[in-house]
Amino acid sequence: MHTCNAPRLDARLAAAYDFVRPGHAAADIGCDHGKLSAALAGSGRCPLVLACDLRPGPLEKARMTCAPYGDKVQCRLGSGLSVLEPGEVDDIIIAGMGAETIIEILEAAPWVFDARYNLVLVPATKHSILRRWLARRGFALRAETLCQAAGRWYAVMNAQYTGAAREPDGLFCLTGLTNGQPGCSEYYAVQNEKLKKYRLGLPEGTERDAVGELIAELDALAAR
Ligand SMILES: C[S@@+](CC[C@H](N)C(=O)[O-])C[C@H]1O[C@@H](n2cnc3c(N)ncnc32)[C@H](O)[C@@H]1O
């Protein structure tokens, strides 16, 4: 947990901070307000932080937040990982975007499919889609922290490329490594509500039946 004069982090960004490896240069992609970049640089956890955003307005906010940390934070304007040279940082954080955007950003940078990079991913939505993509594309989920911020559940994911691509089962996509963590029953109940709505839109048949089975499995996990 960070302890410095940098802005306070919500539970989600605090969990992301904890997955960043001390002593490594990091990039905060979609940094917006710059709070995480400031905490990583201000605490001394990272010798260099690249605070990056697609839009000038958010990047300006980050520039102001990170101003006290001088050249320990560099601000870069542009999409995803296109603003980085391969190998420039070791740890890459992408927080506060939907799973599909995170996936697009990673797919657009083939160099990130390499075990040297420590990925910290905080999808704002569709956690299960990101877990499935990671497994299919050969990334191992090393750790995951379930947390609540502003009344919503977040899964903060720490992933590393291994090259061992696999087809994950549905329950893994929905739960990842969260089983047994504080709040997991509530998280599963929320996930299951979404799954139930999705199932309602499916025609009678195999997928509808399979989703029904998944709902029952998740209900059983939530009830433990
Ligand atoms: C909701 S904010 C998240 C801020 C912070 N990372 C957090 O989790 O609190 C999302 C930020 O991502 C930026 N963004 C969206 N798509 C992006 C992309 N492809 N590359 C870089 N930044 C992007 C937006 O401009 C916005 O500032």
UniProtKB/TrEMBL annotation:
GO process annotations (BP) = methylation
The source's superkingdom equals Bacteria
Sorted alphabetically, the keyword list is: Methyltransferase, Transferase
Q: Does the keyword Nucleotide-binding apply?
A: no
Query: Which GO MF terms does the UniProt record name?
Result: methyltransferase activity
InterPro entries assigned? SAM-dependent_MTases_sf
Q: Entry's Pfam families? A: Methyltransf_18
Protein's recorded name: tRNA (Adenine22-N1)-methyltransferase
Q: Organism, per UniProt?
A: Gemmiger formicilis
